[in-house]
Amino acid sequence: MAHKETVAIYPGSFDPLTNGHIDIIERALNIFDRVIIAVLHNPSKKALFTVEERVEMAKQSFNGRRTIEVDFFGGLLVDYAKMKNAAAIIRGMRAISDFESEFQMALMNRKLNKEVQSVFLMTGLRWIFTSSSIIKEAAQFGGDISDMVPEPVKIKLMEKYTKIK
Ligand code: PNS
After folding, report:
1. Residue 154 lies in a domain
2. pLDDT tens, 57-91?
3. Which of 34, 49, 139, 144 could tie 157 with a disulfide, CB 3.0–4.6 Å?
4. CATH code of the domain in which 42 resides
Protein backbone atom coordinates (compact mmCIF):
# COMPACT_ATOMS: atom_id res chain seq x y z
CA MET A 1 0.00 0.00 0.00
CA ALA A 2 1.27 3.50 -0.84
CA HIS A 3 2.55 5.48 2.12
CA LYS A 4 0.31 8.43 2.92
CA GLU A 5 2.44 11.51 3.43
CA THR A 6 2.26 12.78 7.02
CA VAL A 7 2.15 16.55 7.43
CA ALA A 8 2.51 18.61 10.59
CA ILE A 9 1.94 22.31 11.11
CA TYR A 10 4.43 24.20 13.26
CA PRO A 11 2.62 27.45 14.10
CA GLY A 12 3.97 30.50 15.86
CA SER A 13 4.78 34.18 15.78
CA PHE A 14 8.37 33.50 14.68
CA ASP A 15 9.30 37.11 15.40
CA PRO A 16 11.95 36.03 14.47
CA LEU A 17 12.79 32.35 13.88
CA THR A 18 15.48 31.12 16.30
CA ASN A 19 17.77 28.12 16.48
CA GLY A 20 15.43 26.80 19.17
CA HIS A 21 12.62 26.71 16.58
CA ILE A 22 14.94 25.02 14.09
CA ASP A 23 15.78 22.36 16.68
CA ILE A 24 12.04 21.60 17.04
CA ILE A 25 11.57 21.48 13.25
CA GLU A 26 14.41 18.97 12.85
CA ARG A 27 12.90 16.81 15.59
CA ALA A 28 9.47 17.01 13.95
CA LEU A 29 10.99 15.88 10.64
CA ASN A 30 12.08 12.66 12.35
CA ILE A 31 8.40 11.88 12.86
CA PHE A 32 6.59 13.57 9.96
CA ASP A 33 7.34 13.57 6.23
CA ARG A 34 6.73 17.29 5.88
CA VAL A 35 6.55 20.28 8.24
CA ILE A 36 4.75 23.52 7.43
CA ILE A 37 6.05 26.50 9.36
CA ALA A 38 2.96 28.66 9.73
CA VAL A 39 3.66 32.26 10.70
CA LEU A 40 0.77 33.92 12.51
CA HIS A 41 -0.62 36.93 10.67
CA ASN A 42 -2.33 38.96 13.34
CA PRO A 43 -2.27 42.72 12.69
CA SER A 44 -3.38 43.46 16.27
CA LYS A 45 -0.35 41.65 17.77
CA LYS A 46 2.65 43.97 17.79
CA ALA A 47 5.69 42.42 16.13
CA LEU A 48 9.18 43.66 15.29
CA PHE A 49 9.11 42.11 11.82
CA THR A 50 6.26 42.15 9.29
CA VAL A 51 4.74 38.81 8.41
CA GLU A 52 6.42 39.02 4.97
CA GLU A 53 9.82 39.56 6.60
CA ARG A 54 9.27 36.67 9.00
CA VAL A 55 8.28 34.32 6.17
CA GLU A 56 11.21 35.45 4.04
CA MET A 57 13.77 34.97 6.84
CA ALA A 58 12.43 31.46 7.51
CA LYS A 59 12.57 30.59 3.79
CA GLN A 60 16.15 31.83 3.54
CA SER A 61 17.11 29.84 6.65
CA PHE A 62 15.97 26.55 5.09
CA ASN A 63 17.25 27.24 1.62
CA GLY A 64 14.48 25.50 -0.34
CA ARG A 65 14.49 22.23 1.62
CA ARG A 66 11.85 20.00 0.07
CA THR A 67 10.35 18.75 3.33
CA ILE A 68 9.83 22.23 4.79
CA GLU A 69 7.21 24.71 3.65
CA VAL A 70 6.95 28.25 5.00
CA ASP A 71 3.56 29.93 4.94
CA PHE A 72 1.44 32.34 6.98
CA PHE A 73 -2.05 32.07 8.35
CA GLY A 74 -4.76 34.15 9.98
CA GLY A 75 -7.87 33.05 11.84
CA LEU A 76 -8.15 29.72 13.60
CA LEU A 77 -5.14 27.45 13.58
CA VAL A 78 -7.28 24.29 13.39
CA ASP A 79 -9.00 25.60 10.23
CA TYR A 80 -5.62 26.21 8.65
CA ALA A 81 -4.42 22.74 9.70
CA LYS A 82 -7.50 21.16 8.13
CA MET A 83 -7.04 23.13 4.92
CA LYS A 84 -3.47 21.83 4.71
CA ASN A 85 -4.53 18.23 5.51
CA ALA A 86 -2.22 18.20 8.51
CA ALA A 87 -2.53 15.43 11.08
CA ALA A 88 -0.77 17.33 13.83
CA ILE A 89 0.15 20.65 15.35
CA ILE A 90 3.69 20.80 16.69
CA ARG A 91 4.63 22.93 19.68
CA GLY A 92 7.98 23.11 21.39
CA MET A 93 8.30 22.88 25.15
CA ARG A 94 11.15 24.45 27.06
CA ALA A 95 10.32 24.34 30.72
CA ILE A 96 7.39 23.82 33.06
CA SER A 97 6.48 27.48 32.58
CA ASP A 98 5.46 26.72 28.98
CA PHE A 99 3.15 23.94 30.06
CA GLU A 100 0.08 25.74 31.34
CA SER A 101 -0.61 27.95 28.33
CA GLU A 102 0.28 25.16 25.90
CA PHE A 103 -2.09 22.77 27.67
CA GLN A 104 -4.87 25.34 27.51
CA MET A 105 -4.24 26.02 23.82
CA ALA A 106 -4.10 22.30 22.94
CA LEU A 107 -7.39 21.61 24.70
CA MET A 108 -9.06 24.56 22.99
CA ASN A 109 -7.78 23.36 19.63
CA ARG A 110 -9.10 19.87 20.36
CA LYS A 111 -12.47 21.30 21.31
CA LEU A 112 -12.56 23.20 18.00
CA ASN A 113 -11.45 20.21 15.93
CA LYS A 114 -10.90 16.79 17.45
CA GLU A 115 -9.23 15.41 14.32
CA VAL A 116 -6.03 17.44 14.73
CA GLN A 117 -3.60 16.20 17.40
CA SER A 118 -1.21 18.44 19.32
CA VAL A 119 2.29 17.02 19.54
CA PHE A 120 4.78 18.50 22.01
CA LEU A 121 8.47 18.17 21.43
CA MET A 122 11.14 18.94 24.01
CA THR A 123 13.68 21.42 22.84
CA GLY A 124 17.38 20.57 23.06
CA LEU A 125 18.96 21.60 26.38
CA ARG A 126 21.09 24.11 24.53
CA TRP A 127 18.00 26.18 23.68
CA ILE A 128 16.17 25.93 26.98
CA PHE A 129 16.76 29.60 27.86
CA THR A 130 16.23 31.12 24.43
CA SER A 131 13.12 32.81 23.08
CA SER A 132 12.49 35.29 20.27
CA SER A 133 11.82 38.04 22.84
CA ILE A 134 14.97 37.58 24.89
CA ILE A 135 17.08 37.36 21.72
CA LYS A 136 15.54 40.62 20.43
CA GLU A 137 16.29 42.30 23.72
CA ALA A 138 19.92 41.20 23.67
CA ALA A 139 20.31 42.17 19.99
CA GLN A 140 18.76 45.58 20.58
CA PHE A 141 21.53 46.49 23.01
CA GLY A 142 24.32 45.06 20.88
CA GLY A 143 24.56 41.60 22.53
CA ASP A 144 26.06 38.79 20.49
CA ILE A 145 23.22 36.52 19.42
CA SER A 146 25.02 34.94 16.48
CA ASP A 147 24.86 31.36 17.75
CA MET A 148 21.18 31.63 18.69
CA VAL A 149 19.63 32.50 15.33
CA PRO A 150 20.22 31.44 11.72
CA GLU A 151 22.42 33.77 9.62
CA PRO A 152 19.58 35.45 7.63
CA VAL A 153 17.87 36.36 10.92
CA LYS A 154 21.08 37.72 12.42
CA ILE A 155 21.55 40.02 9.42
CA LYS A 156 17.94 41.27 9.57
CA LEU A 157 18.11 41.85 13.33
CA MET A 158 21.26 43.89 12.94
CA GLU A 159 19.68 45.89 10.09
CA LYS A 160 16.52 46.55 12.08
CA TYR A 161 18.27 47.74 15.20
CA THR A 162 20.76 49.91 13.35
CA LYS A 163 17.82 51.67 11.64
CA ILE A 164 15.92 52.16 14.91
CA LYS A 165 18.94 53.65 16.77
O1 PNS B 1 4.75 31.73 18.89
P2 PNS B 1 3.47 31.93 19.66
O3 PNS B 1 3.15 33.40 19.73
O4 PNS B 1 3.51 31.26 21.00
O5 PNS B 1 2.30 31.21 18.79
C6 PNS B 1 0.96 31.26 19.19
C7 PNS B 1 0.01 30.68 18.12
C8 PNS B 1 0.23 31.36 16.79
C9 PNS B 1 0.26 29.20 17.97
C10 PNS B 1 -1.47 30.91 18.61
O11 PNS B 1 -1.62 32.25 18.99
C12 PNS B 1 -2.53 30.57 17.57
O13 PNS B 1 -2.69 29.43 17.22
N14 PNS B 1 -3.24 31.59 17.08
C15 PNS B 1 -4.26 31.42 16.07
C16 PNS B 1 -5.66 31.66 16.64
C17 PNS B 1 -6.26 30.39 17.20
O18 PNS B 1 -6.42 29.38 16.54
N19 PNS B 1 -6.65 30.43 18.50
C20 PNS B 1 -7.33 29.33 19.17
C21 PNS B 1 -6.38 28.40 19.89
S22 PNS B 1 -5.87 29.06 21.41
Report:
1. yes
2. 999 999 989 999 999 999 999 999 999 999 999 99
3. 139
4. 3.40.50.620
- Contacts of residue 26, defined as CB under 8 A and 6 or more positions apart, other chains included, come to none
**147: domain range?**
7-164
Gap between the Cα atoms of 80 and 69, Å rounded: 14
Determine the distance separating the centroid of ligand 1 and the alpha carbon of 65, expressed in angstroms: 25
Span from the CA of 121 to the centroid of ligand 1 (angstroms): 17
d(CA 158, CA 135): 12
When divided into structural domains, the chain yields a total of 1
Does ligand 1 have an atom closer than 6 angstroms to the CB of 40? yes
**51 within a domain of the structure (yes/no):** yes
| Atom 17, ligand 1: residue with shortest CA distance | 76
Structural domain contains residue 109: yes
Catalytic, 94? Answer yes
Q: Which of 13, 59, 132, 156 is catalytic?
A: 132
User: Residues 94, 110, 118, 131: which is the catalytic one?
Assistant: 94
CA distance 24 to 10: 9
Instruction: Decide if 1 is inside a domain.
Output: no
